[in-house]
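Late entry, written up from scratch paper. The run itself happened at the end of the previous shift, but nothing got recorded in the book at the time, so transcribing now.
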Amino acid sequence: QVQLVESGGGLVQPGGSLRLSCAASGMIFRLYAMGWYRQAPGKQRELVATITSLGNTNYADSVKGRFTISRDNAQNAVYLQMNSLKPEDAAVYYCNSPTMAEYWPWGQGTQVTVSS
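Output as recorded:
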């Protein structure tokens, strides 16, 4: 049974940094592309960063140059390093696979608040 557990969110001032973690289980993790999504109040969930099984990365324009996605296949984990945070980055952040999100259950997410 697939399980995704996000952690690492919190309250940070504008310009600050956070590192999110996602622990995955119930699948052969190394075979799947993974991504970080976010959903702000009143908005649709959006994909902000992806990493393929080979480690190739892609980012939404809104976070390019500020966020870095990485993975550790030995730990079945995916990370999101977020730097230069802006108030508009505030959201609940989730991990899932862009190719399997229709089938895998979503975790509880981790709240990121950016405020002075």
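The chain is about 0% helix and 45% strand.
(Scratch paper discarded after transcription.)
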